[in-house]
């Protein structure tokens, strides 16, 4: 096949965020795998007293590509990111040997649903930035640990000659209305200012196997309904429409490639009812707006008190709960978490998540995940993309020597390009930003069989700037 001298398209497709339609590039530290795994399976063993970082995942064995016609990009049937459906992937071991341009084109035609007659006219550019298409007989190193086309940052480009592929470029949505027991609530994915209670998600954001259960989990993440350790059926139910009397069974299959499926019509959305499952906290008495004055102790010679200004907001954050911030947590902001006690001996000693604090953005991504793991003897930091439940490279610091105060304090500062974390006002770690979005909510949670070493309810104060945080009075 004669090589082309120009690439099929010089501009890349924009990345669209489900929650707010802002341009958000895929995270460069995102680790891609064929099947998402539980986060506890990614941590591995840890040597205490050592700082570990794994921000260079290997992508060997996975081929990444973008689809184009002469008119522009088209959507892949096997997208890597729900926020960018134009980049697809396949496993190298699924391509018939020998691994040549021709064999890869035949495989891509098959998995993307195109006619085999298009193989001869299609062109493959390796990588996307290459100006000349690969010859059909050219050998491809698809099983290498790195190289062109083997990472989402440097995909191949597969250009099809036919232009009549509009069906593949058409966005298909699932429309829904979220409800609490009190009535309709504003959707995080609302797209019409005249109806803020109507949301929608791209059908490609629903993970396989595509059932009502997977749709429920997807909407729960986007709307911030997820509460760990509680079965979804106890919290969230999906009704075919607002007039339905019975919810859809969670094992019902969704045929999202058909013309008709639940929520396919904007005028007939599915109803998503969220009934929060509250876990009792025996022995805890909550007094809104008040906290133990001893929590504000820094040092024996110092007293810490909040400034009387409008740059702060006080919250009570119970375990298993998500609190939405009144003002976004962004550059310059500070979050201070104060515990009524600390009992590390009560924390189950095993290699598990333990207890954690997550800061969420508008797309329900965890822009900062901080977990205390007694079993590993570490505090771990990471991020999580909600669209595909993928974790990034984890960073850890030793737990030994921290949390010495009877009423410990955790401070998280947004320094613009990174987060600064302190325990009892002593520096612990920097965590470089990987998701450049502002925080809108905070989660406090734990593993099901763990007991939090912190109090079951944290006092949290959010400040818009560090200058608003405290006034120190030295005795």
From TrEMBL:
| UniProt-annotated stretches for the region Disordered | 1-57
What are the Polar residues biased-composition ranges? 20-56
| Name of a matching Pfam family | Gal-bind_lectin
SUPFAM superfamilies per the UniProt record, alphabetical = Concanavalin A-like lectins/glucanases (SSF49899)
**Matches recorded under InterPro entries:** ConA-like_dom_sf, Galectin_CRD
* Regions crossing the membrane: none
Question: What would you give as a GO molecular function for this chain, any one?
Answer: carbohydrate binding
Tell me the ranges covered by the Galectin domain, including all copies: 321-459
Q: Which UniProt keywords apply?
A: Lectin
Q: What is this protein called?
A: Galectin
List the lineage, top down.
Eukaryota, Fungi, Dikarya, Basidiomycota, Agaricomycotina
